[in-house]
Amino acid sequence: MAEILSINGAEVKIGEDDGKVITAPIATLQFANPKVGDKVEVFRDGDDFIIKKSYDEAAEGEKSINKHLFVWVACFLVGGLGVDRFMRGQTGLGIFKLLLSLLGWIPLGIGTFAVWVWVIVDWIIAMIKAYGSAYGQDENLTFDEDGNYIK
Prior knowledge:
Helices cover 34% and strands 25% of the residues. The protein has helices spanning 67-77, 83-88, 91-103, 110-131; strands at residues 2-8, 11-15, 21-25, 39-45, 48-53, 63-66, 140-143. The strands form two sheets. Strands 3-2-1-4-5 form a five-stranded antiparallel beta sheet, with no helix packed on it. It has a two-stranded antiparallel sheet with strand order 6-7. α1 (67-77) runs antiparallel to α4 (110-131).
């Protein structure tokens, strides 16, 4: 797996597994906001490069989830049960969201209103993160060890 070693203006230096270092124009990167240390895949077409960020291996403590599954199933369909928070590794918030949902069955209905506002807000944030410019064409969302979106 190749890794970005340095970014100097319009050029990027990438270290490959075989010990070679290549220099490519930053325009060859097929993702936004490159950082030193990003794992990338390098494709060559003669003297030209196409460089994509690699999400196959999440770093230690990170979780990578298919964005369509997360947004439409975890957030939209079963977000009221806290499934989205459990998938992100935020167990405490998942339990709290589940308890609020269960309180909705009490005739007061305070829990129902609160949890559905929370579900809608979580779903909108997930949609913006998954389909906005941060993840663009990527198929996975990545979360850090605390369950926060990475990027």
